[in-house]
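Record type: ASSEMBLY
Status: queued
Input:
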Amino acid sequence: MMNLLRLINGRNASAPVARERLQILLAHERGLRGQPDLLELLRSEILAVVSRHVTLDPENVVVRMERGKHVSTLEVDIEVPNGVVTSIAAVAT
Amino acid sequence: MAKVVVVTSGKGGVGKTTSTAALGAALAQMGERVVVVDFDVGLRNLDLVLGAERRVVFDLINVVQGVAKLSQALIRDKRLENLWLLPASQTRDKDALTDNGVRSIITELRTKFDWVLCDSPAGIERGAMLAMRYADEAVIVTNPEVSSVRDSDRIIGMLDSKTVKAERGERVEKHVLITRYDSGRASRGEMLSIDDILEILATPLLGIIPESQDVLRASNVGSPVTLNDAASAPARAYTDAVRRLMGESVTMTIPLQQRKGFMNRLLGRRAA
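Status: finished
Output:
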């Protein structure tokens, strides 16, 4: 799309690219605005749920978000100490 | 009734201080009683742009802390008797500015002036928040450039949520002022166009200030551009912007750079 715009407007016409980039970026930033830090919120809530059943160290919980063009992924990495896995299984059944 | 207007942008270096001085002077030239307030604590410059840098005795922080009375800190412009300046402090202690202090100063200024123009510091920190906190209207100074437009969008979000008006469920009336505009470069597609900016920001346009040496020349001599050379393209653009701020409907034109010709001198004289 950007290349197409560049072709239509000649080599120097970078303004259409600027416009398109801004529109995409701001649509995203406006969506986040006013919300508390989403990652921090997810981290603390996931932590609360998991720690109801498992004793864990909050330091060993990593929440990562990767924003892709079409899909974004949320990765939650919780380090569970050995010995509690059986109790999780017991709760699950 | 007094109007409190914040001149803000998010991004630094886009022309907030220059615009505050020019808009303030243009309002005063029309007979309005105007005070321009510098909120850039630690990095004051409005005094310099207005040519009052050697007359500063007390400042905003002194008034907030009760060291000086408001009347002692206000500096009257030597050329325009309706124009006053409340300078910022050069002390580094930004925390000296408090919400309560700002509120009481703005309340007092409202009783004395028709217009209170607040020159915001760059950024989105405390100083910028307090500058917009009690505003009725906002002038968002934007350059036709991606980073400036993005920051303006952020500031618009803050104006809609962090101001006293917003908290009361009212709206701060917002206007975009595009500065450093080069119509040649915009028409060649090298610079974001006015339409692009307005569409992205979804905020009405107050004026278009052309890129011009006259702006720098005016700052160099410490005189607002509307006063220094009223016939110049940026001065005419600021004057039009002020008319719109006062509720007049003025056709939006992009003032062209002045050429030294009979017609231009004639037009210039008419604009002055």
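Annotation: The beta strands of chain A are 61-67, 72-78.
Annotation: The longest strand of chain A covers residues 61-67.
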